[in-house]
Specification:
This protein has 329 residues and is an alpha/beta fold. The protein has 2 domains: 2-121 and 286-303, Rossmann fold; 123-276 and 308-326, Dihydrodipicolinate Reductase, domain 2, CATH 3.30.360. Helices cover 34% and strands 22% of the residues. The protein is built from 10 helices and 15 strands. It has helices at 12-21, 34-44, 54-58, 75-84, 101-112, 126-137, 153-157, 178-188, 278-296, 304-320; strands spanning 2-6, 25-30, 49-51, 65-68, 88-91, 116-118, 140-148, 193-199, 212-218, 224-230, 240-245, 250-253, 258-260, 263-264, 324-326. The protein has a 9-stranded mixed beta sheet. Helix 4 runs parallel beside helix 5 (101-112), helix 6 (126-137) runs parallel beside helix 8 (178-188) and helix 8 (178-188) packs across helix 10. Residues 6-11, 30-33, 36, 54, 69-72, 74, 92-93, 119, 121, 159, 175 line the site of nicotinamide-adenine-dinucleotide.
């Protein structure tokens, strides 16, 4: 696979490594900031053709697949343009930040006949795969997801696009907690409504967006699922998804462990823990899977519709302001 990366900031080197591990070759890179291009090449040893204008990169016919690693507000336009230019596209999360972008992104995916994938790499963590498999035979009755992380002023100062509705599209929900909410939707299914509250607890005056969010997701059949996320913690805690099942089990999937009724379950390989590499390996697994789907012309599970699902849920949380909002897929 001949790959390109647009946006050479913090996450770009993870993509570079994942592309190599999937047997791909980075043949083109792009950033509007020359210093980012230089730093990326020095760090990775990459000698790909460098572009400062992504539109110019799009007309490079040697590229098979484009990885979009730019700030959130650019995703929708770049995805649409890259698909229309005839490339497969892997977009970093979130797929987009506005409801009105969803139809045009999905239309470009459909009409181009190309593959669109979204980087929800935590679906590849062994602990989450194990929980998902367990819930298929013993469904969740109720649950709770948490993201308790530390993002201070320094983090927001690291990019002018961060912390603003216009360019980041939200705070902890659309950026950090999107992954965990995506896991909930993937494992438990699509809720029918959400009631959410947003707060800015520790960075008032520094960021416009929420640093803390709580939500109650309701299902038509009466089930409920609570969610709490904050970046106002003093440290990064393990992300958790906890469920009580119809069969009476209590299951906790954390970053790298799964606990069933209080006992840590061994994985199939006999290790005590599921997936010790979860923080670093999700991208590599996802990129490998995406490339296999492209080569074999098979559907990729985390496509435009799946990427849009969690964006829609988060936008409904933003609209909610404490009232119940209906969710659509
Ligand atoms: N999946 C994950 O776990 C994960 C982790 C971190 C970041 N991300 C996502 O990756 C994306 C990038 O995040 P980041 O932390 O690397 O941001 P960043 O600010 O470090 O990097 C963004 C880069 O995009 C470049 N850029 C801006 N406008 C551009 C344009 N028009 N054309 C080309 N390049 C342009 C910037 O110069 C910068 O180098 C975001 O969507 C973020 O949410 C995902």
């Amino acid at each position: 696979m001949r790959s390109a990366i647009i946006g050479l900031g913090a996450i770009s080197t993870t993509h570079y490594g994942a592309i190599g591990r999937a047997g791909g070759e980075v043949v083109a890179i792009c950033d509007i900031d020359e210093a980012k291009i230089t730093a990326f090449c020095e760090k990775t040893g990459c000698h790909a053709t460098a572009y400062k204008d992504y539109q110019a990169l799009l007309s490079d016919r040697t590229i098979d697949v484009i990885h979009i690693c730019t700030p959130h507000y650019l995703h929708a336009d770049m995805v649409v343009a890259a698909l229309r230019a005839g490339h497969h596209v892997l977009c970093e999360k979130p797929l987009c930040i506005a409801e009105e972008d969803i139809p045009r992104v999905l239309a470009a995916e459909r009409e181009s006949g190309k593959h669109l994938g979204v980087c929800h790499q935590n679906r590849y963590n062994e602990s989450n795969l194990a929980l998902k498999a367990m819930l298929e035979s013993d469904p969740a009755k109720s649950g709770f997801g948490t993201v308790v992380w530390d993002r201070g002023e320094g983090y927001y100062a690291s990019g002018a696009w961060r912390g603003k509705w216009q360019t980041e599209g939200g705070g902890v929900m659309i950026n950090q907690a999107l992954h965990t909410l995506d896991l909930l939707l993937w494992m438990v299914g699509q809720p029918d409504s959400v009631q959410a509250d947003l707060h800015n607890r520790h960075l008032g005056g520094v960021i416009e967006v929420e640093d803390t969010a709580s939500a109650l997701f309701r299902y038509e059949d009466g089930r409920v699922f609570n969610f709490f996320a904050t970046t106002a913690s003093g440290a990064d805690m393990p992300v958790q998804v906890m469920v009580a099942t119809e069969g009476g089990q209590t299951i906790v999937a954390a970053n790298d462990t799964i606990t069933v009724n209080g006992e840590i379950r061994p994985s199939d390989s006999g290790d005590i823990r599921y997936g010790k590499d979860v923080w670093g390996d999700g991208h590599a697994k996802l990129v490998r899977d995406f490339y296999t789907c492209i080569k074999e012309d098979q559907p990729f599970a985390i496509d435009g519709r799946e990427g849009a699902r969690v964006v829609r849920a988060i936008l409904a949380m933003y609209r909610s302001q404490g009232k119940e909002e209906t969710l659509t897929v």
